[in-house]
Every structure is written in C-alpha cells, then in structure tokens.
Specification:
TIM Barrel; twelve-stranded mixed beta sheet; about 15% strand; disordered N terminus
C-alpha cells in the first residue's frame, strides 16, 4: 500500500521547466531557400571545431594504461544525518578534526587546478554534502570555472527540497538521490533514522524544477530490499527517473559478505521475467552503468556492477576525500595528501607532479570482491563514494 501511495504521489509531479545546455561551439543557421547541412556534415564541422579549440588532455591525469581522468568527485564533509548500514558502522566512526578538513578555499583551489588540466565533471559527495553550510556558495564558484561542463551532487535527499532552488540557481546540473526502499518502516531500519517523506519531497522537487533524469541510487541487499526491484522500475513508467541498482560493495564496518550481494545478472533476470521487452541502451563512454529501458516508459533503469562485472578498463574517476587525500581508485587503499602539500606552500607545478605520480600508479583493475572484502580501506562515509 505504501509503495502504491508513493508511486501515485510521484506520478502527479509535472516538470515545470526544461533545462538546456550548449556545447559552446558556433551553430550554423539555415536560411530559407538554401540547402540544409546533412547530419554528417554538421557532425564533421563540430568535431573540427573541437579539434581546433580543445587543448591536448593533460599527461598528469592520464595513467600508464592510457585512461584519461576527466571526472573528479570531491567529498565536502564526513558528517551525515543518516546512518546507512552499508556506509557507516553501527557504532559510528571517529571523525577527522575540523582543522584537518579541507577549507572552502582549498577545495576551490584544487578544483581549479584539476579543471585546468582537463576535468570537465565534478560531483560533490560526503558524508552528506547538503549539511555543509556553504554548499550553495561552493557550487556557485565551481560554476564559474571555464571548461567545467557538469556539476553534480550525490545526496540522501533529506535537505534537498529546501536547498534545491538555490542550488539550481547557483549552477547545479545533475542530481543523484540515494533511496534503498519505498517502504517507510524499512527506510528507518536501513538508515537508522526517520526522513522517508523528506527524501520523497526531494525527488518531487527535483522533477518539478526540470532535472531529467533524476538519478535514484538503490543499493540492493539480499534479504532486505531485493523484493522491491519491480516497484522501483515501475516508477520509471511516468517519471523522468534513472533508477540505478547498485551491487552491494565491501567497505570497512559494513559487515559485507558475498551472500548479501545480489548480482547484476540476477537482478536483470528478475526484471526480464516481468518485462521481457526490456531493451539495453548503448553504453556511454566511461560510464559505470549498464542502462536499460522499457519501451513506452518515460524513465530508465541502470545497474552499477562494481563487483560482478567491473568497469576498471574505462575508469575516468578520481576522488578527493574531505580531509584532502587523493584516491585514484575507490577500492584501493593507496592515498596521497594534497592538503598537506597545499598547506606546505607547494606550487601548482609541484602539486601537478604529485597528482601525476599518483595517477601513474593506478592499477589496471581492482583486486576483485573477495580480496577487497579483506583489504583495509576507509568506511564509505569517509571516502565519499
């Protein structure tokens, strides 16, 4: 019953605005009476424009396997107003002293440096990024960086409805909302806090303000929420959602075990039994998601297959933790402190050499789910996802 009510509430949401974007390249106007360009000619012209106006990709952000890293995830805080079972140990964690966390100016200094070298997408994470008091100002200042095409945020949605109008005005262009169940009581069990209706209001507000798609991240755990796969997908029938089913991943303190993990193929099989017409969509370059769509549905669904079918070969992601460490792999335990070098007065050139050395040491792929489960790594909340 709760699922149906939630679905009906969401189905009533209408998009009130349509966001648009521009590539920055000049657009050829077609004059009446003149022959129009073919699609192939237009594509060729656009590619020529990009070749002439785009600098070579930075060697500092290219690893030894030729992977170019154009996507940076920055954790704004280690704090969170929820206690999700797969993210934070039940007993909590010792937080980094405030003096050891990156300041706003340090975050922006590093962001400017990375964007200058070729980063064109930044995602703000946490902890819960929307509890940071200056998050709107950070988004606004990132929006001023020339070459940065996308500013995204991953949030638990608790504060989203209240802050999203300001964030959109500041320049926020993409939203991921974590939601692992459509059942309010189960929500409280998973996150150990109340707040289900606030998350739903956040999804409502994102659609109302024209974000499309609104990405909903669902970590699937056996015995807990794998029975809700069909309910989540049903939401995409009338709403511009991209429901992303994420394989349960091992991190310190979340008591991961293989039996809790529901693999991509198992989830896909469940959905195909209900919707045999399910279509696989073309994979985007460097995407971590395997995307599918049910014909006639407004939204789509995706799978993040970090455990069963890794995507290391096309990984283009780097991470900066809230305390200023650069992680070149989510599942690796190797880190280098950019904060310490910044505070020691390192020049831009020195920072780039440090970053380049770390990127150059990035491995071809992670060690596999069973090795990762035994590896000492931070809890997810201290990494930023």
């Amino acid at each position: 019953m709760a699922v149906r009510l939630v679905s009906r509430m969401l189905q009533r949401v209408l998009r009130s605005s349509v966001r648009s974007c521009s590539s920055g390249a000049p657009v050829t106007q077609h004059r009446p009476g003149e022959p129009s360009q073919t699609a192939a000619e237009e594509l060729s012209r656009q590619r020529q424009f990009l070749r002439e106006h785009t600098a070579p990709f930075s060697a500092f952000l290219t690893d030894s396997f030729g992977r170019q890293h154009s996507y940076l995830r920055i954790s704004l805080t280690e704090k969170c107003n929820l206690r999700c079972q797969y993210c934070m140990p039940e007993e909590g964690i010792p937080l980094t002293p405030k003096a050891d966390l990156l300041t706003t100016e340090e975050i922006l200094t590093l962001a400017r440096l990375f964007v200058k070298e070729g980063i064109d997408k930044i995602r703000l994470t946490g902890g819960e990024p929307l509890i940071r008091p200056d998050v709107v100002d950070i988004v606004a200042q990132l929006h001023q960086l020339e070459g940065l095409r996308t500013i995204g945020i991953t949030t638990n949605g608790i504060n989203l409805a209240r802050l999203l109008p300001q964030l959109q005005k500041a320049g926020l262009s993409a939203i991921n909302i974590s939601l692992d169940t459509l059942v309010p009581a189960k929500f409280e069990f998973i996150v150990r806090r109340k707040g289900f209706q606030k998350v739903m209001a956040g999804i409502h507000k994102a659609i109302e303000l024209g974000y499309s798609p609104v990405k909903v991240n669902c970590v699937v755990m056996r015995g807990l929420n794998e029975d809700e796969l069909l309910d989540f997908v049903a939401l995409t029938e009338g709403l511009p959602l991209d429901v992303r089913f994420i394989e349960y991943m091992p991190f310190d303190g979340n008591r991961w075990n293989f039996k809790k993990m529901v693999s991509y193929k198992e989830m896909l099989n469940t959905l195909q039994q209900q919707w045999p017409e399910l279509e696989k969509l073309p994979e985007e370059e460097s995407s971590t998601a395997k995307a599918f769509k049910i014909p006639g549905f407004r939204g789509q669904l995706s799978f993040i297959t970090s455990m069963s079918e890794h995507f290391c070969g096309t990984c283009n992601r780097l991470r900066i933790t809230a305390d200023g460490n650069l992680k070149v792999c989510l599942f690796g335990n190797s880190e280098v402190s950019l904060r310490d070098h910044l505070r020691a007065g390192a020049s831009e050139e020195e920072l780039l050499r440090i970053i380049g050395a770390a990127v150059g040491r990035k491995k071809r792929q992670h060690a596999g789910m069973f090795s990762i489960a035994q590896m000492k790594n931070r809890p997810m909340i201290l990494i930023g996802g």
